[in-house]
Design the sequence.
């Protein structure tokens, strides 16, 4: 149940997000299989358990867990393009005429429709956790597109979802660069051995370092030449390690063994109990970690009226 990535969103207005209200809303947008002529479908599924009786919202300690599933038919563009070329060649040879753009697009649509029923189906799930008391939503992805797919569908189900990405007063790259230059992060955070350095000029280069001493002369020379730290490996309070980038995307999130062992003890022998214990401990950790990270980076930028 442990999230591997994190995009953080701030609720900008108070809305009703109790489990019962949310359950009813998600039920209006259930996941379903792709029909024979559909490219994809998107809807909500039970985050824990299977079957029709499994709830679409899992609630624990004031936190809510939801999940959305996307089904899409995989139709490689190379297959469509090869079939289109064959069809165009056939028409131009037999009818002795040129196939122009409008007809080409129509032929392509016909080929796609004929191939769809035979295309493979790929399924993918995205999880999100809601902390109503904190006014935050955490999405387990590093892709803004995947997060927006879930959030826009949630907005449709609820009728309204006033949110925006978490914003920091100071540009994160400036803070991360300062940390590496001084080899001193804010209290509670530790600099690890991985970073990305990027030249601020339009055609500037990028340097990626792994298992590298970031205090070395080589890294400091890059910083002295004007490069900024755009990704940095960090650890927090011996509980988490992660990569933070300059867009506030948290990647490769790893919960240390102590937390995982505690969740195993709390969850008992039941599979659902293990999932619930992992989720609860993860949320309680995030409730401390996100404010600490926000403060370390310079504090959250609060829009007027929020």
Sequence:
């Amino acid at each position: 149940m442990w999230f591997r990535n994190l995009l953080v969103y701030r609720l900008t207005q108070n809305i009703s997000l109790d489990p019962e209200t949310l359950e009813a809303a998600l039920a209006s947008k259930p996941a379903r299989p792709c029909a024979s002529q559909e490219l994809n479908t998107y809807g909500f599924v039970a985050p824990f358990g299977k079957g029709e009786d499994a709830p679409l919202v899992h609630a624990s300690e004031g936190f809510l867990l939801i999940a959305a599933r996307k089904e899409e038919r995989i139709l490689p563009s190379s297959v469509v393009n090869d079939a289109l070329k064959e069809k165009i060649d056939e028409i131009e040879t037999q009818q002795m005429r040129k196939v122009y753009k409008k007809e080409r697009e129509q032929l392509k649509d016909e080929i796609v429709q004929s191939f769809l029923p035979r295309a493979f189906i790929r399924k993918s799930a995205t999880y999100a956790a809601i902390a109503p008391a904190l006014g935050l939503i955490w999405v387990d992805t590093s892709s803004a597109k995947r997060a927006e797919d879930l959030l826009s569908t949630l907005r449709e189900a609820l009728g309204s979802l006033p949110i925006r990405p978490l914003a920091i007063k100071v540009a994160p790259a400036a803070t991360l660069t300062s940390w590496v230059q001084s080899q001193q992060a804010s209290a509670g955070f530790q600099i690890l051995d991985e970073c990305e350095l990027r030249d601020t000029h339009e055609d500037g280069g990028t340097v990626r370092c792994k298992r590298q001493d970031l205090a070395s002369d080589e890294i400091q020379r890059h910083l002295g030449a004007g490069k900024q730290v755009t990704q940095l490996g960090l650890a927090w309070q011996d509980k988490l390690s992660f990569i933070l980038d300059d867009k506030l995307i948290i990647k490769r999130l790893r919960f240390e063994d102590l937390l995982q062992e505690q969740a195993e003890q709390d969850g008992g022998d039941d599979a659902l109990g293990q999932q619930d214990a992992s989720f609860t401990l993860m949320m309680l950790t995030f409730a401390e970690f996100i404010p600490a990270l926000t403060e370390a980076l310079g504090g959250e930028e609060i829009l007027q009226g929020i």
About this structure: The chain has a mean pLDDT of 91. The longest helix spans residues 271-296.
